Amino acid sequence: MMIDQAVAAFVHFRERFDHHGLAIYRAVGTSAVRNASNRDVLLHRLYHEAGIELEVIDGEEEARLVRKSVVHSLGPTGSPPRAILDLGGGSLEVNLRYGATWRGYSLPVGTVRLLETFGLDGAIAEAEAGMVRRYTATLMHTIPRGATGNDLAAATGGNAEALAKIVGDGNPVTPSFDLAALEKALPSIVGASVEDRMEQFGVKRDRAEVLGIAALVFATVARQLGIARLVAPCVGVREAVLLELAETAREEQAKAEGAHDKALLTAARAFANRVDHDTTHGEHVRQLSRTLFHQLRDVHGVPDARGVVLEVAALLHDVGEVVNVRGHHKHSEYMIRWARIPGLDDTSREMIALLARSHRKDAPRARQLINDSPLSKDLRAQVRRLSGLLRIADALDSEHRSRVEQVVCTRMGEALVLDLVVRDGPSRDDAQLLRKSDLLAEELGLAIKITVARPVAPPVEAAGGAVVALRAPEE
């Protein structure tokens, strides 16, 4: 009967998935499914009748998920809790902090499991409560203690949330309760019948049946760990699964965007090759433009997705030279507007054409050209700033010799300083390099200064050293 109900629920879930076109999901089963004698029957029916694969996670994974949701809920500020206690029907998942790392343990002291193990029903007698406390404390002695110096723990699960309402401080955002308050209320919680708990504490029957056991477990574990206060952030496995699904979706989107950007640049290079345009200078300007764009993203404020627009424009800004070097920026604009470049949408094409056209001449003429375009006001503002970046990148390679190897950008008060590392040439400020910085300076409201020098230190390998990547420890 219960399996039939579970299958019916999952069939409903599948229908909602299909209705909304949902492609990414994760369904997990915890202690109750792990220890069920008929779990294989359940998993088989869910897969074949509902089309959903239920992943049965072990205690360690369950503890990790709870830890993730709690840490995310409490935020990065403040001292993290010493412990995270997730009490369910089949097990208690204990996360203990050891310095900067966490370790999870799974103990078979879930509320339903203890009720069945000790044959408890309704009010719990003093002798029965003693058995529960001794059993829980004995299992707690099998795990090492965590950090000291912080008497706060997080308690998760429906029982923790119910206890926080009964004996808590009334905080509606993050409910919490003291061990002293819980222990003071233990006689009234443990000794009450199921009906009395429902009436006195305003909980449903299924919660009232296990509330006494839950109170005993939390009180015993907190006392064993030296925890004086428990916070109930009202999160658990579900929230962690949702967090990780969102992270996965973002990663997939980033991969798709990265693949699109690479394909678009490949298509732009193919177009340049078809018209017999040498992209040596364009590639170097593209690299310089990319560097400027990413180092100054907080200054120019153009969305990251427009970075590829700037790179394609940098690659093709001189493509019009195959028609005539004189006025080549106009020819570049025309060729880009009519070029066959797969993956280039109409808006991006318009922006790239404007960037190619405005990479030459003075700032007022470039600005007027962009402002007269049919793009929206916001997009015109983006093009003006992208054009400012492209004009500087092009000026940095005005000799077409790829001399500039590195650009280091720094905001210095009301000025933007570009420190250039060059292969050869002067080791002094070169005012000539500032000739096309006017548009960006006006758009950003910042003075632009440039310093030029050769590398001040040899490469690490040449000096007999090495660069080592260090991975931060996982949670």
Keywords:
475 residues, alpha/beta, Nucleotidyltransferase, domain 5, Hypothetical protein af1432, 3 domains, 6-stranded mixed β-sheet, 3-stranded mixed β-sheet, 19 helices, 11 strands, disordered C terminus
Kindly describe this structure:
The longest helix has 38 residues, at 237-274. 53% of the residues lie in helices and 13% in strands. It is α/β, with parallel strands linked by helices. The protein folds into three domains: 2-56, ATPase, nucleotide binding domain (Nucleotidyltransferase, domain 5); 59-235, 2-Layer Sandwich (Nucleotidyltransferase, domain 5), CATH 3.30.420.150; 242-453, Hypothetical protein af1432. A six-stranded mixed sheet has the order 5-4-3-6-8-7, with helices on both faces. It is elongated and about 100 Å long. The protein is built from 19 helices and eleven strands. The model is unreliable at 467-475 (pLDDT under 50). It has helices at 2-20, 31-34, 39-50, 59-74, 111-118, 126-140, 158-167, 179-190, 194-201, 205-225, 237-274, 280-295, 297-300, 307-316, 328-338, 346-357, 363-371, 377-396, 438-444; strands at residues 27-29, 54-56, 83-87, 92-98, 101-107, 152-156, 176-178, 229-231, 404-412, 415-422, 447-453.
